[in-house]
Design a protein that fits this description.
By secondary structure, this protein is an alpha+beta fold. It has two domains: 137 residues, FAD/NAD(P)-binding domain (3-Layer(bba) Sandwich), CATH 3.50.50.60; 161 residues, Alpha-Beta Complex (Flavocytochrome C3, Chain A, domain 1), CATH 3.90.700. 22% of the residues lie in helices and 20% in strands. The strands form four sheets. Strands 4, 6, 7, 8, 9 and 10 form a six-stranded mixed sheet that branches. The termini are close together.
C-alpha cells in the first residue's frame, strides 16, 4: 500500500499517502447484485436492516489487487423483520423492526404451515438461521402467532407503532386478517395443540416442554394456542451483514491468492471472511469487530512505523 485516492464533496479526487491501510467498510448486504449472485434467489428482495452504503466496495477493491476471497460467501446474518419495514434501516425505529419472541408461539407461512422448530434453542442461537428461512417461504413472508398467555412476555419491539399485526377472537378470523390460508392455518394450530405434551413452561430456560408426533416439532416452550384473542405479526427477512469476505492473518494482515500477506493492507469488521458459517451466536459480530479492529490498528501502526 502506498495510500488511497478519495473523492472530495466537490467531486475532485485527492491522493493521500499512507504506509499502511485498514479496510473496515463492511460487507455487501446493501448491494442487490452481489446479494443475488452470492446468496441466491429472492435475496435481491430482502430488507436491509442498516445503511444503504455497505455495498462491498472495500471487498472488491481488495480482490482487484489480488486479495484472497474467504469464508461463507453464500451465507449471511439475517433476522425476522417487519413485513412492511422500509427497504433500508430507519434510524428513528432502529432495531425495533426485528421480531424475536417467536419461541413463545408458532411461526407459519401464507399457507398456514409451520416450517421451523421455534423452540429448538434459545433465541440467540436460532434467530439468524430462522431469519434466512423466511425468505424461502411464499411471498417471502411469515407470521408469528401468539395467544394471551404470552402476550405480556413479548419483547418491547412488538409494541411499536410501526408494526404489521392483526388480532382476532378466532383463529379463522385472524387468518383472514393476515391473509393466511384459513383452512391450512386452523388445521396447523389444531394439530399443534394436540401434540403439546405436559410439563412446566419456563421461558427463562430450555424447559423441555415439547410437542410429539408433528413435523417440525417444537422442542421447548410448547403451549397450546387456546386463549383468545389471538395475535399475529407479519415478518419478512431483514439482512444484517454478509459472511463472505477477505482472508486475514491473526494480525489482521490481508492475504493474497497464494496466502502471502499484502504489504501494508489490513482488514477488520464485516468484510473479514471465515468467521461465521451457516449460523451465528448473538453479539459475536460486534465482538469480532472490536477484537480484530484493535489488532488491525496495532498491526498497521507497527508496520507504518517500521517503514
Amino acid at each position: 500500500m502506498t495510500g488511497l485516492e478519495i473523492r472530495r464533496p466537490d467531486g475532485a479526487s485527492e491522493s493521500l499517502q499512507a504506509k499502511a491501510l485498514v479496510l473496515a467498510s463492511g460487507g455487501f448486504e446493501a448491494n442487490v447484485e452481489m446479494r443475488t449472485r452470492y446468496l441466491g434467489p429472492n435475496w435481491d428482495l430482502a430488507r436491509v436492516r442498516g445503511t444503504p452504503y455497505n455495498t462491498g466496495d472495500g471487498i472488491r477493491m481488495a480482490l482487484d489487487i489480488g486479495a484472497q476471497a474467504w469464508g461463507h460467501w453464500s451465507g449471511c446474518h439475517a433476522v425476522q423483520w417487519d413485513y412492511n419495514a422500509p427497504w433500508h434501516g430507519d434510524r428513528k425505529v432502529g432495531d425495533n423492526f426485528q421480531k424475536h419472541s417467536y419461541p413463545l408461539g408458532i411461526i407459519v407461512n401464507v399457507e398456514g404451515q409451520r416450517f421451523v422448530d421455534e423452540g429448538a434453542d434459545l433465541r440467540n442461537y436460532t434467530y439468524v438461521k430462522y431469519g434466512r428461512e423466511v425468505i424461502k417461504q411464499p411471498r417471502r413472508a411469515a407470521f408469528q402467532i401468539f395467544d394471551q398467555k404470552v402476550v405480556d412476555l413479548l419483547r418491547e419491539e412488538y409494541r411499536i407503532r410501526e408494526v404489521t399485526k392483526a388480532e382476532d377472537a378466532t383463529l379463522d378470523g385472524l387468518a383472514r386478517k393476515l391473509e393466511i390460508d384459513v383452512e391450512g392455518f386452523v388445521r396447523t394450530v389444531r394439530d399443534f395443540n394436540a401434540a403439546v405434551q405436559p410439563g412446566t413452561f419456563n421461558p427463562a430456560i430450555k424447559d423441555g416442554k415439547a410437542t410429539r408426533g408433528i413435523k417440525p416439532p417444537k422442542s421447548n416452550w410448547a403451549q397450546p394456542l387456546d386463549t383468545p384473542p389471538y395475535v399475529g405479526y407479519a415478518v419478512t427477512t431483514g439482512i444484517t451483514f454478509t459472511f463472505g469476505g477477505l482472508h486475514i492473518t491473526t494480525d489482521g494482515h490481508v492475504l493474497d491468492g497464494e496466502g502471502r500477506a499484502i504489504r501494508g493492507l489490513y482488514a477488520a469488521g464485516e468484510l473479514v471472511g471465515g468467521l461465521f458459517y451457516n449460523n451465528y451466536p448473538g453479539g459475536a459480530g460486534l465482538m469480532a469487530g472490536a477484537v480484530f479492529g484493535r489488532i488491525a490498528g496495532r498491526s498497521a501502526t507497527r508496520e507504518a512505523k517500521s517503514a
